[in-house]
């Protein structure tokens, strides 16, 4: 994909990587359709960039409204070249300690909404002859940390969904990219909900907190830049590990998983049906 002006649709554009993507794209001359719960949070960018920034109020868990916004984006722009599914939030705490509401909201926001967005943009991308769907995922889609179980459940889920979808839509010229950052210096951690450990978990593996944001290795500007470059590539990668901790931890986890499988090869083959 060349660097001429493109139109991008970005969910969760109010803060963090979504806001950074919006800023960088507008600075590069692109047009952005930004969705967020409070469109006024982008008033400063609207004043600076005028009609190259289109805004829509959206809670991504409202599937009916999601459909309306997607259709409106194509009606307004005529064509959307790249869709970035970015909206999400985190809940930190032992799996047992989370409330039913926290479990459901995590799944609804991080997984179900991403699936429903993909289902609604793919027909538009197919009908216009192609485009790119970028899903913001995480190194947490390949490995786990105690206290982040429900977050991992949503990221492992969307990884599987996007990988299957990629094969289905490739014949139509639609490409998908899973962006998998490590720990990023972003407001994500400030906005995340933290659940105090109940008595059995105090002092245990789940009774931990992430390191201070200033000690995290990745900048949100770096993640946004890498995401843009991948989306504009002629042959974008299915998965994009971003920053050093993501690369080291994910490749190590995959090697360890493979080594574990290989120790059980004989047992696996033993379960085959007899010829």
What this model shows, in words?
The chain has 275 residues and is an alpha/beta fold. The protein has a single domain (7-245), classed as Rossmann fold (3-Layer(aba) Sandwich), CATH 3.40.50.720. It is built from 9 helices and 11 strands. The protein has a 7-stranded parallel β-sheet, with helices on both faces. This is SDR family oxidoreductase. Keywords: Oxidoreductase. It comes from Nocardioides marinquilinus. Belongs to the short-chain dehydrogenases/reductases (SDR) family.
The pLDDT mean sits at 93
Helices and strands: which structural class?
alpha/beta
Radius of gyration: 20 Å
CATH topology: Rossmann fold
Separation, N- and C-terminal Cα atoms:
51 Å
Q: Please write the CATH class name.
A: Alpha Beta
Number of helices: 9
Strand order of the largest sheet: 3-2-1-4-6-7-11
Write down how many β-strands occur, each being a DSSP E stretch of 2 or more residues: 11
- C-alpha geometry: globular
Protein name: SDR family oxidoreductase
Pfam family, one: adh_short
Family: Belongs to the short-chain dehydrogenases/reductases (SDR) family.
Keywords: Oxidoreductase
């Amino acid at each position: 994909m060349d660097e001429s002006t493109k139109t991008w649709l970005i969910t969760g554009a109010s803060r963090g990587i979504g806001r950074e993507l919006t800023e960088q794209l507008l600075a590069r001359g692109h047009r952005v359709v930004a969705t967020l719960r409070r469109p006024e949070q982008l008033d400063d960018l609207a004043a600076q960039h005028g009609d190259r920034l289109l805004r829509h109020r959206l809670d991504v868990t409202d599937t009916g409204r999601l459909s309306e916004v997607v259709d409106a984006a194509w009606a307004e722009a005529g064509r959307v070249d790249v869709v970035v599914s970015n909206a999400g939030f985190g809940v930190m705490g032992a799996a047992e300690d989370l409330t039913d509401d926290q479990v459901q909201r995590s799944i609804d926001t991080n997984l179900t909404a991403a699936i429903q967005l993909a289902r609604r943009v793919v027909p538009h991308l197919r009908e216009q002859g192609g485009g790119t769907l970028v899903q913001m995922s995480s190194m947490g889609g390949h490995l786990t940390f105690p206290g982040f179980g429900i977050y991992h459940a949503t990221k492992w889920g969307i990884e599987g969904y996007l990988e299957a979808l990629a094969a289905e839509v490739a014949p139509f010229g639609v490409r998908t990219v899973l962006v998998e950052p490590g720990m990023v210096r972003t407001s994500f951690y400030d906005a995340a909900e933290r659940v105090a450990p109940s008595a059995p978990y105090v002092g245990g593996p789940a009774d931990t907190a992430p390191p201070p944001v200033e000690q995290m290795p990745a900048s949100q500007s770096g993640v946004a830049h890498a995401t843009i470059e991948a989306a504009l590539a002629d042959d974008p990668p299915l998965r994009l590990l971003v920053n050093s901790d993501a690369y080291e931890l994910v490749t190590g986890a995959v090697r360890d998983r493979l080594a574990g499988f290989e120790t059980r090869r004989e047992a696996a083959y033993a379960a085959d049906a007899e010829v």
